[in-house]
Amino acid sequence: MNDVKLIKGADIVGRGRADVLVRGGRVAEVGTPSAVGAEVIDADGLVLLPGLVDLHTHLREPGREDAETVLTGTRAAAKGGYTAVCAMANSYPVADTAGVVEQVATLGRAAGYADVQPIGAVSVGLAGERLAEIGAMADSAAHVRMFSDDGHCVHDPRLMRRALEYVKTFDGLIAQHAEEPRLTEGAQMNEGAVSAELGLPGWPAVAEESVIARDVLLAEYVGGHVHFCHISTARSVEIIREAKARGVRVTAEVCPHHLLLTDEKAHTYDPVYKVNPPLRSGADVAALRAALAEGVVDAVATDHAPHAPQDKDCEWSAARPGMLGLETALSITVAALGGPGGADWDLVAERTSRTPARIAGLSAHGRDPEPGTEANFTLVDPAETWTVVPTELASLSQNTPYAGMELPVTVQATFLRGRATVLDGKVAEEIK
Amino acid sequence: MKHLLTTKQLTREEAELILDLTGQMADAVSGREVPKLPTLRGRTVVNLFYEDSTRTRTSFETAAKRLSADVVNFSAKTSSVSKGESLKDTALTLQAMGPEAVVIRHPASGAPQRLTQWVDGAVLNAGDGTHAHPTQALLDAYTMRERLGGIEGRTVAIVGDILHSRVARSNIWLLSKLGARVRLVGPPTLLPTDIDAWPVEISYDLDASLKDADAVMMLRVQRERMNDAFFPTTNEYARLYGLDERRLALMPGHGIVMHPGPMNRGMEIAARVADSPRATITEQVANGVWVRMAVLYLLLTNGDAQ
């Protein structure tokens, strides 16, 4: 494999065209470098973005390799323009020990398609009772600094307080799945007019908002960093906006599906639209889009949740919640931030790459190409559209809610430390 | 009309056609020596019941048999379902038998709609979760038409656990479509949130709701709901929302008392009220067979053999 690449003619994060010379996995020069013998990649008409970073990915390995593996999940990530993903802790066994997080990190390195940063569980077995060995996971070879019981809320206020305090020793953060469990027992979809009609038990917005309000106060009190996973309501945005204005160490992510789809989709009773937190109202979608543009919401995170066919090919209430996201996130983010025509690429890079990299502590990612930085970036065709076909996705699973939809922008190539994980829109057969 | 999943999907014309056919079924069979019509001879109707419901299953079975259809009863309790077979696999198994209609009762809202994707025959919703129970609403509407001489302009109070009631949901859409004024009565805990767009009035006061009601429909309230703080005690519920003789006297003289069954006597309805001539409870059961005959006939013949 040629160690020297010249990426010619790309629009660098919307700031104008330049050539990027990559040598030994790092950017050597940006501008009009000459490089005899370099492998030339024609990027005319493409936009170069720093490689996307996902704060919230379910890779399903170990435990549910029938739905996704680290290999297939990171191939899907690369195809979506990602160079790094944070793997959620709800595997089987749970990633609540140094051994499991190191295993996941090792699998990621072996696959080679994206850097895999494990997230550790806050509590043993995600049970919400005792703290997991957070220090051991932080000190492990996986260098965990973000902890989450995602899928479950750390609902015990005392445990949440202790966790926020404890991770201060290494400047870590707690990623909270905000859901007051007593308000969502048996819940199947957003509580509102649609759930009333469909006779599906409602998941009220206040179940998310009340936990966010509480945790903002806890984080403020102990001086810890709380990050809110997949916020889904307009009121959550307001609480976070107010907390940030007061200087509380709070960050938040939004999922692509909450930027595009509403609970009206439940009329189909097709569980491909079942997700937790659920699809909300059009007013929530509008508020989340505005908050993402404004920066109250810091990052787009996929909550990529692959599921085996039998877990979705059933009654709504029997289905598992969650939907695929890695391969469609960039397209939906571009659409949500104004569409490909007037896309603010710097803003797209900020919300999908730079800020999530900063939150996750991945200093080699989320960097615009400058001499010396790792060559982690993606090339996007802003003029092309594509139609989502579940069987054509790189993920092992097919539970995408966007089947048949035409989405803007395509990922043409992705580079991880200079190696093409995706080229000409196709995932590399293997990473040498 | 290919399936009957909800009353919301019915047009007013379709609903009125079903009610007209119901009357014709009653007339055609009543008084016959052999109370059977040959209409669906050679057709197979599967009753796929995932919940215990002797009354609804028996009603559908009787209706199908009176139309001379072959009936297969597939009960979740006695089948491979209890061994964990998925709805889809069960549907594919049934599909292999080629039934013209599947009547499904299921605890999951939306299960009948899912079933339409896996079987070719007509799907009749016999009650899904807390979503819909269209034949119950149709038999209620038919009962009102018979007893009140019509539905247009009549006031109907639906009382009790609206939140968990598929009967209420189906009646709301059907009765409002047929021109009735529908009033929901119950404690706020048992009313769904965000129903401003529903074609109904809302009241928390049963006494005030009865004075102009041509019909009052009392819903079954599960005693266990008090464990989830929907109401404090069964006694308090009965005091505030139970229909007793004092309250019955508040209704106009022609007003009728309906209940989809099974009743909790002494809870939502007093025994003397349930047994009074104003109550239509056993009539509703009898009418259920005619309504289900009408629906089966319509779905399986497209009305061709009329």
Describe the structure.
The complex is a heterodimer of chains A (432) and B (306). Chain A has helices at 70-79, 98-111, 134-139, 157-166, 193-198, 205-222, 234-245, 282-294, 329-336, 345-360; strands at 4-12, 17-23, 26-31, 39-42, 47-50, 52-57, 82-87, 115-118, 146-147, 173-176, 189-190, 202-203, 226-228, 250-254, 299-300, 377-387, 406-416, 419-423, 426-427. In chain A, a hairpin with a 2-residue loop joins β2 (17-23) and β3 (26-31). The longest helix of chain A is centred in the middle third of the chain and has 18 residues, at 205-222. Chain A is α/β, with parallel strands linked by helices and 432 residues long. Chain A has 10 helices and 19 strands. Chain A has 2 domains: 4-47 and 372-427, Urease, subunit C, domain 1 (Roll); 50-360, Metal-dependent hydrolases (TIM Barrel, Alpha-Beta Barrel). The model of chain A has no long low-confidence stretch (mean pLDDT 97). Chain B has 306 residues and is an alpha/beta fold. Chain B has 2 domains: 12-131 and 285-301, Rossmann fold; 134-280, 3-Layer(aba) Sandwich (Rossmann fold), CATH 3.40.50. Chain B is built from 11 helices and 9 strands. In chain B, the strands form 2 sheets. In chain B, strands 7-6-5-8-9 form a 5-stranded parallel beta sheet. In chain B, α1 (12-29) packs across α5, α2 (54-66) crosses α11 (281-301) and α5 crosses α6 (166-177). Chain B is globular. The mean pLDDT of chain B is 94. The A-B interface holds A 188, 191-193, 195-202, 204, 268-270, 310, 313-318 and B 8, 86-88, 106, 108-111, 113-114, 128-132, 166, 169, 192-198.
